[in-house]
Amino acid sequence: MFDIDKYSMISFAPSILIVAAMLVISFFGLRFMKREIAKDAANAQQK
Q1: End-to-end CA distance of the chain
Q2: What is the mean pLDDT of the chain?
Q3: How many CB atoms lie within 10 A of CB 33?
Q4: What sign results for the dihedral spanned by CA atoms 22, 24, 25, 29?
Q5: Is 80 exceeded by the pLDDT of residue 16?
Q6: How many whole angstroms separate alpha carbon 16 and alpha carbon 34?
């Protein structure tokens, strides 16, 4: 039913790589944003 050959992988693999890259970038971006928000909150409390 699901026949995977070399030619179908040529178009499928880049799509999966792009989706995976977007998930990784989103994960690290959210982690970075949480850290920056925590820093800003700490700085606001000190002033």
Answers
A1: 65
A2: 90
A3: 10
A4: positive
A5: yes
A6: 27
